[in-house]
Amino acid sequence: MSVTYIDAIREAQETLLREDPRVFLYGQDISAFGGAFKATKGLADAFPNRVFDCPISEDAMIGLAVGAAIEGMRPIIEMQFADFSSIAFNQIVNQAATHFYRTGMPIPITVRLPSGGTPGSGPFHSQSMEGIYAQYPGLVVVTPATVSDAYHMLIDSVKLDDPVLYCEHKFLYRWLKSKKINGEHLPIGKARIARPGKHATVVTYSAMVHEAVRAADRLQADGWEIEVVDLRSVKPLDLDTVLASVARTGRLLALGEAFPWGGVTAEVVAKVTEEGFHLLDAPPQRLNARDTPVPYHPKLWAAHRPTPESICEALRKLLSF
Amino acid sequence: MSVTYIDAIREAQETLLREDPRVFLYGQDISAFGGAFKATKGLADAFPNRVFDCPISEDAMIGLAVGAAIEGMRPIIEMQFADFSSIAFNQIVNQAATHFYRTGMPIPITVRLPSGGTPGSGPFHSQSMEGIYAQYPGLVVVTPATVSDAYHMLIDSVKLDDPVLYCEHKFLYRWLKSKKINGEHLPIGKARIARPGKHATVVTYSAMVHEAVRAADRLQADGWEIEVVDLRSVKPLDLDTVLASVARTGRLLALGEAFPWGGVTAEVVAKVTEEGFHLLDAPPQRLNARDTPVPYHPKLWAAHRPTPESICEALRKLLSF
Amino acid sequence: MSADGEFLRSVFKSMLRGRILENKLSSLYKAGKIVGGVYLGKGQEAVSASLGASLVQGKDCFAPLIRDQAGRTAFGEPLIDCTRTYLGSVEGPMKGRDGNIHRGRPEMGMPAMISHLGAQVPLIAGMLFAKRLKGTLDGCVGATSVGDGATSTGAFHEGLNLAAVEHLPLVIVVANNQFAYSTPNTRQFACEDLVDRAKGYGVGGHSVDGTDLLACASVIGGAVRLAREGGGPQMVVANLLRLGGHGEHDDGSYVPDSERNGKYGRDCIEVAIRQLAEGGIATVEEMAVWQDEISEEVQRAVAQAQQEPLPDPYKENWTALSTRFPISAE
Amino acid sequence: MSADGEFLRSVFKSMLRGRILENKLSSLYKAGKIVGGVYLGKGQEAVSASLGASLVQGKDCFAPLIRDQAGRTAFGEPLIDCTRTYLGSVEGPMKGRDGNIHRGRPEMGMPAMISHLGAQVPLIAGMLFAKRLKGTLDGCVGATSVGDGATSTGAFHEGLNLAAVEHLPLVIVVANNQFAYSTPNTRQFACEDLVDRAKGYGVGGHSVDGTDLLACASVIGGAVRLAREGGGPQMVVANLLRLGGHGEHDDGSYVPDSERNGKYGRDCIEVAIRQLAEGGIATVEEMAVWQDEISEEVQRAVAQAQQEPLPDPYKENWTALSTRFPISAE
Ligand SMILES: Cc1ncc(C[n+]2csc(CCOP(=O)(O)OP(=O)(O)O)c2C)c(N)n1
Ligand SMILES: Cc1ncc(C[n+]2csc(CCOP(=O)(O)OP(=O)(O)O)c2C)c(N)n1
Ligand SMILES: [Mg+2]
Ligand SMILES: [Mg+2]
């Protein structure tokens, strides 16, 4: 028996529905159909009148969630793909994000964003929007990379009083498996050492954690011990854990799957150089996707995002300074 | 006689309408009324059937512009405030930005975004969204800081074959005056030394250029010579000019008025440390607005954005390393 | 006094409160005493107050918009909330963080609007949806108003359609004042009458002359009643004119004289005074007394707000999150 | 053959081309030969082809959607554009950068859709608006189709309203196939009939049985004619059923038998064959020949695309901007 990443997301929602009457699910095709990715399979049956199909109205979906949160509920909204949250952008960044600062009343909504690239999905079913939402004050942005985190961070996201963008990586849905969901877990806001090392630190999150570990495993053959830090949440960003790692290794590669301008990797490098400049023995490096929309053809797609090869290359460059 | 920043924007549109039959203006209240800020005053009279009032439909406004661009036109779209472009987000980042890569046909639209804070404008009439749009491949994002740049960069934006977000700062509209509009000017993509110096470099753009110069003037009294680089366009970002300045000074403060997570300042620091680490004699610093929505009350607003005082403080810290 | 008469008297008092308060705000604006912009509901008080007065605070919810001072008052918002916000007191409901027309008290069922037009429509739907899930929806209504211009937003469409699909007791009042800022209806929509939209959403549709108190009280009150009794969403299109500029910075000179002198150009307060007097619902003397009383209330609210401290950036809690990170593991 | 007869024959040929091509795509998908997803127009060919065949390439513009293979063909898109895209050839119109149903050729008046539903509505309006400014609008039409689900988007609303305000010759066909992915109309809108929306936008409204070729050709052709003659935007609601899953990955088992066996469950191609034969417009033998010819065309287009190179990341021009920065000062 094993649990996949998507199973964990489903289980977390089941747990939440069971344990918290304030929770309900709202999204397209999530009721009887169980969602485009089956993340809500069976939940409508198990929890009648708690799981709703809705019109193709992303803006109104978030508007409804904010209104429900004002009335004390804890809605989980499924975007069919993260990319479609562009339609709900205004409600997310202007209505939900500003509400606590403006009124003193927090808005505990969780927006599930099926994120990231998969082969053949193309420019509008592959986006990684964490670096967009993280720019807005008032939002929490989490990016689980493991089966256990997929479970616990969704539970914790719903427990948080603030709006959370829960970025779940589609590539991990069925590919990532685990024997079981760990009982112990870190809180949102704490990063994790995914792989210990001493020659260089890769700071990354979500699916790229696994690519980074692969790259690190390859470099092991050459005697390099690479540490991989899994940020887990990109906002808040756990600078302490990152700095502690960089203090050990002296070298930083910030790695992400999003577009190359700005975003998480820029924030990581800027924060580390501001607070930990003296720890660095080499110029911190970044590796992101290319500066084009995510291409549809798998051959282009595979070269658009960082790969174990390109990560190794970036690390070799970093280690050569 | 003097020309204000908003005059320059108006003049540029007049020039464009006169010289290029492909140009038309589309926006809310921009026709007979001349726009919320009077940036199009008189243009509807001078150019009948080239300046249009439109419904309160930001998403459709950009959709229309993209369609018109496909047919060979060069529309200029006025958002009443940059903040309302959140409604048009999808059309900007998914339709306009991806079009050239997907089809090989460029989309020469210019979206004017009245940006940045002014006292009493509050969370939804004050935003600086350059760091949001700059993350998307396929968009050019310009941020003029001077009267001459307001003019020439708008002309150049419309001439570019790619979609441009033209971020005009509302605080500069009437406050910033110039004797005349310079004939000579730099192209989009080139930064400018706004004030030469040798002890530290402030890299900034838009209204913050003026606050940085003020801060630099104050520090002059203590013998510090601060160089201020005006990026002019944040995407593309002229790293050469920035690196050349940092090579001279050894110290970098990246300054912006946007929210503190990510954005332009993070990109600047990350780029400089990646490419110019050896040039730095001190940890590069960042100064942004605070991590809350832009407050409405002038007393809070003034403390939310960087000020000459807080810039001086950041520079003193930078100089003390 | 009949129930209807009582209702009309209360609507009218809210109209007066709105008008007198806003006249004061206008003077304060001209004197440079106001922080931020001033957007008034002059000419729209009959519509706004009829809506607010049809709602029950503590039970219903109401998302007012920029021209809803009268409706806010009718719903029970204290005048001091308004003066504090406009005068920048830190004691105001938004503490100086947001301003004027954006103020709200979500905990009392009156959410705080964002500027983006149409955005409150799905939000009110969400409040009602939550009440249904909690089992407290019975007999409740949620209401909001929008302008003619806001009907062109995707948010309005998605929100109203969603409310219709969920069969929520939502009342949406379209205050069709013929202009959106300077933009006339001819550049805003092409249908003959906005009320024709109701059928396309499958919601109740009602039209009313927004300058006519008796008509507003009856039509808007009736729409609220229909929603309350389970009739699903109701849309009321109230036709009228804004008796001023878009905001106090604007003279509204783009409104042609033909409109100003036309059927919606009349002042709903004057109409209401005549209607109440003629109907024997209130005497002219009585109404004059109300006016004096309210003027004093307004003076007091202004005076109090003016004495209060402004927000202090050094004391401000500069955080947009209610969670204090880092949070510890359980 | 009368003009009407010729039109029906051409519509039917496009229906056949769509169906036969898509059947092939479906087999290729099952054989694992397709890159990306496969979304078919099975059951919607009469609607789609009637629209495409009413348009004139080089003059009109057409923004097809996911179920518009027949309409694309009718508008003049070569089959090879389709097979190249699905099979991942770098010679395709999108060069492997975008896929399948997103393909377009904006230079031929057929823009490339983005996934976000409703987004093509204002875009087509913009193409028409530009034609007006250029003085080339006379006698032109712009068309697009949307599903029942897409009518709930803000983009649809804003785009159609804007087209109405600008009085553009836009034809929007709502292919109401009763479901949006798995979501039935009851969870999508609450009006009795989507065509009731037309009046609220001030546009022409038309309904048609989308399984009936004769009706589609006449109603959709008529709506295009009205728009072309200056009648402003036209909205056609075509009622039908999707004769398959949402995509080939989906078995559509949520569609109840009552719907499958109901009046829209019939196959428009079978209906068309009967209609053309009975009307003396084409003989059954003739139609069988067309079928064979098209099958061969399709085979050729598949074979050709299969021989072509895939995109090569090392040769790819990795840039999203047409401008090469840094550009030099003049
Ligand atoms: C989405 C959006 N776009 C633009 C604006 C700027 N704006 C504020 S009020 C207004 C006019 C509103 O007109 P209407 O809805 O008719 O209301 P009225 O002011 O006439 O009461 C505009 C364009 C906005 N607030 N929101
Ligand atoms: C804005 C947006 N939200 C969600 C989706 C995901 N999605 C793709 S097709 C589809 C269903 C569309 O239904 P409908 O418009 O009725 O067209 P049909 O598939 O029935 O032809 C959905 C929800 C999308 N493409 N765009
Ligand atoms: Mg109005
Ligand atoms: Mg459908």
CATH fold category name of chain C: Rossmann fold
Q: Pick out the low-confidence regions of chain C.
A: none
Characterize the overall form of chain C: globular
Topology-level CATH name of the largest domain in chain A: Rossmann fold
C-alpha-based Rg of chain C, rounded? 20 Å
Descriptive account of the structure:
The complex is a heterotetramer, with 2 copies of chain A (321 residues) and 2 copies of chain C (330 residues). With 321 residues, chain A is an alpha/beta fold. Chain A is built from 12 helices and 14 strands. Chain A has 2 domains: 176 residues, Rossmann fold, CATH 3.40.50; 128 residues, Rossmann fold (3-Layer(aba) Sandwich), CATH 3.40.50. A 7-stranded mixed β-sheet of chain A has the order 3-2-4-5-7-6-12, sandwiched between helices. In chain A, helix 2 links the parallel strand 2 and strand 3. In chain A, helix 1 runs parallel beside helix 6, helix 8 crosses helix 12 and helix 9 packs across helix 10. The longest helix of chain A has 15 residues. Chain C has 330 residues and is α/β, with parallel strands linked by helices. Chain C has a single domain, classed as Rossmann fold, CATH 3.40.50.970. Helix content of chain C is 42%, strand content 10%. In chain C, strand 6, helix 8 and strand 7 form a beta-alpha-beta unit. In chain C, helix 1 crosses helix 2, helix 1 packs antiparallel against helix 10 and helix 2 packs parallel to helix 8. Chain C is globular. The termini of chain C are far apart. The model of chain C has no long low-confidence stretch (mean pLDDT 96). The chains are: A alpha/beta (321), C alpha/beta (330). At the A-B interface, helix 4 and helix 10 of A face helix 4 and helix 10 of B. The structure holds thiamine diphosphate (2 copies) and magnesium ion (2 copies). One thiamine diphosphate sits at the interface of chains D and A.
